[in-house]
Q: What sequence folds into this?
């Protein structure tokens, strides 16, 4: 039986085994999928052992996406743009590294939320790896304007420089954003992990209005602090990152099996499991 897994540290909380199990059941694919915790200094050694033992592919999560980028034999263009790998695929004896995070977010916005990014003004909050992973697919969606804001201007500006060939992007610190932006954005996308500690990015209220669509790339079993803040400012359209998680998994499943699963029912099932 073809074997796949997700690796991370910690990993017990991962919904990937549930998601890929539902994909396999839906598509009739026969496979085994599990989660494996790897010590932070053991990634190279353990991944080599697993693929030597017949592993066909792996999802990679925190804190190993940069390790997977370095370890893979070959990289797709979107992995190179992201500077990180979240999907490993065994192909003709070598391991290909890909990044499906950005495509997962865009597919969730367009397919599940029925949102429109083309011609829209988009504010991206954060300048870490999560944001880097989605910028190239975001620019492919042809937004009118992309603004990136981060606690430190230098990190935001570094992303602006790295992606300058893909489209125009303005970089601000939170203080600068407060001084220079006075109109609500069409989309506000939170790529910071502040919600994991119960915090919210220090955004000025000028960036958000009732028609702003607010998207948190993270999810939990309750509304995220970012989306709480957005609703308090009157935003009527707030979404978390569960759909992104499932869409990036669907992209990985397609790369492994050549079959693209339907995601709407899986999102409902996983959300039901999350909130029970």
A:
């Amino acid at each position: 039986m073809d074997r796949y897994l997700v690796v991370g540290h910690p990993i017990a909380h991962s919904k990937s085994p549930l998601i890929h199990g539902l994909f396999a059941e839906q598509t009739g694919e026969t496979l085994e999928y599990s989660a494996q915790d790897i010590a932070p200094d053991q990634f190279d050694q353990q991944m080599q052992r697993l693929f030597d033992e017949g592993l066909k592919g792996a999802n990679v999560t925190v804190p190993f996406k940069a390790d997977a980028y370095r370890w893979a034999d070959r990289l797709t263009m979107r992995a190179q743009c992201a500077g990180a790998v979240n999907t490993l695929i065994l192909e003709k004896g070598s391991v290909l590294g890909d990044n499906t995070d950005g495509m997962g977010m865009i597919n969730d916005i367009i397919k599940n939320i029925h949102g429109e990014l083309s011609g829209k003004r988009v504010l991206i909050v954060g300048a870490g790896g999560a944001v880097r992973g989605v910028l190239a697919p975001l620019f492919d969606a042809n937004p009118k304007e992309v603004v990136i804001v981060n606690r430190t201007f230098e990190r935001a500006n570094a992303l602006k420089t790295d992606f300058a060939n893909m489209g125009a992007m303005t970089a601000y610190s939170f203080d600068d954003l407060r001084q220079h932006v006075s109109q609500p954005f069409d989309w506000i996308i939170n790529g910071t992990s502040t919600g994991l500690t119960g915090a919210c990015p220090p955004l000025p209220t000028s960036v958000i209005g009732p028609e702003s669509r607010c998207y948190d790339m993270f999810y939990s079993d309750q509304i995220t602090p970012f989306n709480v803040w957005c609703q308090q400012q009157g935003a009527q359209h707030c979404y978390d990152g569960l759909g992104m998680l499932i869409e990036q998994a669907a992209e990985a499943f397609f790369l492994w099996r050549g079959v693209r699963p339907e995601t709407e029912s899986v999102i409902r099932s996983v959300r039901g499991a999350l909130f029970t």
Notes: The chain has a mean pLDDT of 95. The first strand starts at residue 2 and ends at 8.
